[in-house]
Amino acid sequence: MNFGAGAPGGTVRCRYCSASLPVMPGLRAIQCPQCNCVTRVRRPRPWLPSPAVPMHVAGGGFFPHARGKKRAVLIGITYAGMRRGGRGMALRAPVNDVKCMRYLLCERFGFPNDCVQILTDEEKDPCRLATKENIRMAMNWLVQGCSYGDSLVFHFSGLGAQVPDENGDELDGYDEAICPMDSFQQGPILDDEINEAIVRPLVHGAKLHAVVDAQHSSTVLDLPFLCRLSRNGTWQWKDNRPPTGAYKGTSGGQAMLFSGCSDGENNISLLPEASTVGAMTHSFIKAVECEPGATYGRLLTSMRAIMREGGVNCYLQGPIGAPIRKVANFSGVQEPNLSCSERFDIYRKPFVL
């Protein structure tokens, strides 16, 4: 997706097709339903609710008060019936992705069921629809009151986008974003917001693992260090801190993002049988299951092999080991990436949720 600059007011003109787009108060960007491009609205406004305010969710509901040491928010959006590029669109993989992630977290890593919140665009409960406001509330629920020993997971499977950076805190000149189910009306959620919501509040001893299966998601948490495969075949850290010197780290905790370097092209990689999962989600789950006790370096190497060659053979239980054998590379992922709030030895540190 491409983004253009917009102007404040009750409506803005799409930079690409000149359609008139209504702007709701507080929006920072608006997605055009005609051409799928996004226009920035130059009116940033704080959105995070005060900790003293009950976490009310659109539709009249509330997130549960379950405060286990292991908590997760899993988001999958198919965008069924919505327009993209002037035609109908739907992704099959995202809802399956969150089912597979939930099984992995609950059955493999002991996350309590009531501490794993799922938001999709297929939910009957309006409080569980993957709208922009519900996603924001879910992110706040995930980290609110976090303390030493907390293990938090954020997973998003859907569409991602880029927007020209306006405050100089991006090395490549672009902010990255995730697209809620109502992004045509309410706009995407930019990486600056995601960083403020689930990275900055992490206190000492709390850790966050994020897995984002979307285009343009390589640094969508705005973390200061990025680990990529070098030309000599080793994983190496790159300093990704903003040139402005803006702090993008935590409040003492650790945040890590598994994402992918993508070309934005949509591809389907077929394995025997039906059903669909996303390539990034599939490679992460399969690598974790097939490499128990692996280091982060070994996990990245295994994910890369799975993406490129179908990966190693191992028996998987749960949804991802059932008849799901079609992998949808809707995010165009070519290589896995790891970004983090701090550098560490990926060949020594074991992966632990």
TrEMBL record:
Q: Quote a single Gene Ontology cellular component term.
A: cytoplasm
Origin superkingdom: Eukaryota
One record GO biological process: proteolysis
The Peptidase C14 caspase domain is annotated at 69-340
Entry's InterPro entries? Metacaspase, Pept_C14_caspase
Q: Which GO terms label this protein's molecular function in UniProt?
A: cysteine-type endopeptidase activity
- Could you tell me which Pfam families the record lists for this protein? Peptidase_C14
Write out the similarity annotation: Belongs to the peptidase C14B family.
This one is known as Peptidase C14 caspase domain-containing protein
Q: Look up and give the organism this protein is from.
A: Oryza meyeriana var. granulata
